[in-house]
Write a structure and sequence with these properties.
Length: about 180
């Protein structure tokens, strides 16, 4: 497994996402990414537990409509080291391989990935509808931004070393978060 020092840390290589207030309680975060990999490969990165751990989280469940699909974050900090969180329970709202994966999650609201062919690659339209305090919105958006950057690396055969994520990538998250704060001002 490749370590973080082989991963790109240029978090500005992708455009910033957007924030849309849907109603007084719900906010939608939207990010779009173009990847050189075909939709089937991106789908596998979103749904197969051995692949999701390379860039996102541990997954427990299957990508079938109505099935459970629980998530466990791997980049949570405790006493200076990366640790895993508890499982956050979820369900698959809709799964149409390799085009749509929509999840409902106890911690992260509704997560939707829409994949479409783009030449020989894939366009990923990613949305996360959340109900969180105002100060958490841009933090969440920056988090998804960094995870989707990690997805680019995973598609190239690399993997995040989660035990060292805070040392290696928290500064990148801070950079991206700062860009979102500046764009919103």
């Amino acid at each position: 497994m490749a370590t973080n020092n082989h991963l790109k840390k240029d978090m500005a290589r992708f455009a910033l996402g957007t924030v849309t207030q849907l109603d007084p309680e719900h906010t939608q975060l939207t990010l779009t990414r173009d990847y050189a990999a075909p939709p089937e490969q991106v789908w596998a990165m979103l749904t197969e537990p051995a692949q999701t751990q390379k860039w996102w989280c541990k997954v427990r469940g299957t990508a079938r409509t109505g099935s459970s699909f629980d998530l466990k974050w791997l980049n949570v900090k405790d006493e200076g080291h990366g640790i895993e969180t508890d499982w956050w329970n979820g369900r698959v709202v809709e799964a149409r391989e390799p085009h749509i994966l929509e999840l409902s999650n106890s911690m992260h609201g509704t997560i939707k990935a829409e994949l479409s062919a783009l030449g020989t690659g894939t366009r990923l339209a990613f949305t996360n509808t959340i109900n969180v305090p105002e100060e958490v919105i841009l933090m969440s958006l920056a988090g998804w931004h960094v995870h989707l950057d990690h997805l680019q690396e995973a598609l190239e055969g690399k993997s995040v070393d989660w035990q060292h994520w805070w040392d290696d990538f928290f500064p990148c998250w801070e950079q991206v978060h700062g860009a979102y704060v500046a764009a919103r001002s």
